[in-house]
């Protein structure tokens, strides 16, 4: 209800938490505020203000646009294009068959080969992707989950071939399978063996590739699926705890493994609110620090630091008047910087239509560069710290994150909620509710349900996958299979199967099959014999 | 509703794309609009979807694809529907579909194309106006 203050009509505003938002905030909103306890300086426990003391004054966030297309050669070309344009890290997108362990020549793969990212069937494809790119000079992020162990093993093998010590490899592998059952759907095995494989990779990286983030627990897909901005963060932390428990039960110490955990969290999307998005990430940093210290007994600073990259979400971008999306993404990017992100990927203005064109991806990179170099927003760490409003919101967000996680635990834990489909059901319902609010105009989308004057249609040149992709990939795969030592492949796969049966850490058993040019699909089929496949619960 | 008979809709995910929240949102909406809606779940083949359509005697098949594979899948689906003599079924495509491909899909015989961000009301209105059930 609108209230009258003097003559002026006051527009009512409700936060994502359902609480009414005041017109301004003051000291009375932060009674007994203790700087040391609530905030402390950046780089100090509980890290509310940031995980490092100097943040972007020492090094800017990594500008990492997600890319990967059709074949290994064209991906290699785009990587070189982005590096030439000043990008500082690589991020590789895989096609769906690679993500769910099908070779390009397997049934059901045909229509998806090379469509959303690069097709990887064997080590040869992977070597071509990084041809001429020195792996000790860059960091690479891999958006891969069910087949993450295979991809990481391939990266190690490419490093070996380049003469780079795997201990010097830097980057991040997503390796977060649980959110795939909730959103995006690139699962293969049931949750239990999948969690085991996540643990294998974390354990292996801890031992052999210590500078590599073995996991990036991701809230972005959950947000696109219908979670609100706080739920997306809370669910990611809840999922991270499942993996932490998996590795701890193998005898690892929390201070050995917590530093390997990083998060990929959404900024923007259909529920975007500039201050709420920032506050919940500040609140999440404080929540995590306390969780690691108080619940898990972590002591090392790095275990307590909630390190995250951010994805500027495509869900908030619109098909209508697509150039408006550049403005939206710029504001998401600013929120990400104020949140203290360590890395940023922005959805591109044409992504509603297809994977981004060169122009769109370069524009997203330029948005980041303009923020970093022209605006001053990167000069001071946590510039919003101390704002009555932001601190009040941060407190509320931290409490809400704890409340959501507590509820999940008391309902039997996130794995149970995933297996029964109840979390998927709840979030899909929420997505429907948001859609109805957009349809009714209650939630404003500029150019869609407000200010939507019919304008002249502008043709966007969208990216088109080369139709020859699949044929080229099939020929290569055929050649690989013809030229390898079949007996060697079979015996290596046999050993992998035995190791899976014994419950050993599988990563060391992946190298031999890969060296012998076993394909991703063959490795996954071998593991399916031991692990079985996931059956989707009914959710609608 | 223009007719007494309940409209039966099959919402399908064909191919490997796992982005299904759009499909689910549409399912909720069509049910609220009084239609009976069946969902195939993920990773279906064209053949599987057509068999379900046949067994469930649906009036409408809605295919959701966000992975860019809409053209090749549409071609196979239309062919299969003709083989199984399901020419009367209203076929809709939705998802990440570039403007240029909308016309191409329609030429192939897809009746309605609703790219991401299409209005739910438009989709249900289209179904009600174009569904051909009960006319055989």
Please describe what this structure looks like.
The complex is a heterodimer of chains A (540) and B (136). Chain A has a 5-stranded parallel beta sheet. In chain A, strands 4-5-6-7 form a 4-stranded parallel beta sheet. In chain A, α7 (191-208) crosses α9, α13 (324-339) crosses α14 (358-374) and α19 (486-502) packs parallel to α21 (520-531). With 540 residues, chain A is α/β, with parallel strands linked by helices. Chain A has a domain at 27-63 and 174-440: Alpha-Beta Barrel (TIM Barrel). Helices cover 47% and strands 8% of the residues of chain A. Chain B is α/β, with parallel strands linked by helices. Chain B has one domain (8-130): Rossmann fold (3-Layer(aba) Sandwich). In chain B, 42% of the residues lie in helices and 18% in strands. Chain B is built from 5 helices and 5 strands, in the order βαβαβαβαβα. Chain B has helices at 21-32, 46-55, 70-83, 99-108, 120-130; strands at 8-12, 36-39, 60-65, 90-95, 112-115. Chain B has a 5-stranded parallel beta sheet, sandwiched between helices. In chain B, α3 runs parallel beside α4 (99-108). Chain B is globular, with a radius of gyration of 13 Å. The two termini of chain B are 19 Å apart. The model of chain B has no long low-confidence stretch (mean pLDDT 93). The A-B interface holds A 96-97, 99-100, 102, 107-112, 115-116, 180, 183-186, 224-226, 318-320, 352-355, 427-429, 431-432, 435-436, 439, 448, 459-460, 462, 465, 536, 538-540 and B 14-21, 24-25, 27-29, 39, 41-43, 45, 67-69, 72-73, 76, 96-100, 115-117, 119-121.
